[in-house]
Amino acid sequence: MKKIFITSYLAGTRAQFCAFMTKNNVKPGKILVITTAGNVEDYTGYIDEGKALLTSLGYELTILDVARESTAVCREAIMHAKIIYVTGGNTFYLLQELNKKQLLSEIKASIDNGCYYVGESAGAIILAKNVNYASIIDETSLAPDLKSSAGLGLLDFYPLPHFGEEPFTQDVEKTIVRYGQRYDLRTLNNHQAILIDDNSQALKGDY
């Protein structure tokens, strides 16, 4: 059972998020927010906006930075979470820190057991089998200890966020040119979301 919400920008997909949760009879409650991807970014306003959105909807946020917390604390938080929101930021740094604590298997197991996963930008890209296609959008140099670009492998496609959105427009187009024949890239702008409900998929645009 997979319940996954994929977005470029959570604050820009409020209506889709609410509709997805309502459809699945999920009422606002506790949500684990993993903000690690933003650690190496100069601008993180989108994280604040995402948190503000969730708070306004009545969610109780638990913030987790896997780079700073112990493996035990991270595993405990992930294991008990009913909803996990992984924010945007640098994909490779996020993957590096998750791998350091061996948390990919923990997250995957939680999703397989019914935990809802909300992936924003980098948090969406790590759902793919491999994240190397994000190397044009994100700097790989920010993750010097990353040994493997293998992601969670929960999707049979590759999310490509920020399509047509500045300042990512050119890098997204370059990514499509370089990787479009190799991977099934699914583009989405900042007001679209890909909803995965078990084995069904749907792209939802502006409401």
UniProtKB/TrEMBL annotation:
For this protein, the record's CDD domains field holds: GAT1_Peptidase_E_like (cd03129)
Recorded GO molecular functions are:
serine-type peptidase activity
Name the UniProt key words of this record, in alphabetical order.
Hydrolase, Protease, Serine protease
Q: Name one Pfam family in it.
A: Peptidase_S51
Q: Which GO terms describe its biological process?
A: proteolysis
Question: Is Lipoprotein set as a keyword in this record?
Answer: no
User: What PANTHER family does this protein map onto?
Assistant: ALPHA-ASPARTYL DIPEPTIDASE, PROTEASE S51 ALPHA-ASPARTYL DIPEPTIDASE
Q: Which family does it belong to?
A: Belongs to the peptidase S51 family.
**Protein name per its UniProtKB record:** Peptidase S51
